[in-house]
């Protein structure tokens, strides 16, 4: 390799490393920091993790969550349904997707709904 090619390669690599370091250390050099409308410190999945899945998200509210995460699916007639699973087998016992049914055809939930949580491998039941 000629000395000119080695110089070009090393200067390019050095410039890349210096630029990467500067942008990593000072990310606002190119872009201003985005102003948040509100600061969220706690987000609850399925309404909170201290109890069974709760469609009203009461648990998340009582533990002081700032934002609730819900899973929504659209029925065949374009109605929005709040359901963790796209398939209703676990919650209703019927192996069908929400998107394959009209809203009026949705089956009722089971009397006891197994809702497993990963922390401590404990299963809760919604009665």
Automatic annotation (TrEMBL):
Entry GO terms, CC: endoplasmic reticulum membrane
An MF annotation (GO) of this entry: phosphoric diester hydrolase activity
Subcellular location: Membrane
PROSITE patterns associated with the record: GP_PDE
Record carries keyword Transmembrane helix: yes
A Pfam family the protein falls into: GDPD
Reactions that this protein is recorded to catalyse: N-hexadecanoyl-1-(9Z-octadecenoyl)-sn-glycero-3-phosphoethanolamine + H2O = N-hexadecanoylethanolamine + 1-(9Z-octadecenoyl)-sn-glycero-3-phosphate + H(+); N,1-di-(9Z-octadecenoyl)-sn-glycero-3-phosphoethanolamine + H2O = N-(9Z-octadecenoyl) ethanolamine + 1-(9Z-octadecenoyl)-sn-glycero-3-phosphate + H(+); N-(5Z,8Z,11Z,14Z-eicosatetraenoyl)-1-(9Z-octadecenoyl)-sn-glycero-3-phosphoethanolamine + H2O = N-(5Z,8Z,11Z,14Z-eicosatetraenoyl)-ethanolamine + 1-(9Z-octadecenoyl)-sn-glycero-3-phosphate + H(+); 1-O-(1Z-octadecenyl)-sn-glycero-3-phospho-N-hexadecanoyl-ethanolamine + H2O = 1-O-(1Z-octadecenyl)-sn-glycero-3-phosphate + N-hexadecanoylethanolamine + H(+)
Keyword Transmembrane helix tagged: yes
All copies of domain GP-PDE, residue ranges: 37-127
A GO biological process held by the record: glycerophospholipid catabolic process
Family: Belongs to the glycerophosphoryl diester phosphodiesterase family.
Protein name (database record): GP-PDE domain-containing protein
């Amino acid at each position: 390799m000629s000395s000119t090619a080695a110089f070009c390669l090393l200067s390019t690599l050095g410039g890349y490393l210096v630029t990467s370091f500067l942008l990593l250390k000072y990310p606002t050099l190119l872009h201003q920091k985005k102003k948040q409308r509100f600061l969220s410190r706690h987000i609850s999945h399925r309404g909170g993790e201290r109890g069974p899945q709760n469609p009203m998200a009461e648990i998340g509210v009582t533990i002081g969550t700032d934002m609730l995460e819900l899973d929504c699916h659209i029925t065949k007639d374009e109605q929005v349904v709040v359901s963790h699973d796209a398939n209703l087998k676990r919650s209703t016992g019927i192996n069908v997707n929400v998107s394959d049914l009209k809203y009026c055809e949705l089956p009722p939930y089971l009397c006891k709904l197994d809702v497993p949580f990963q922390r401590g491998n404990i299963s809760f039941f919604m009665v």
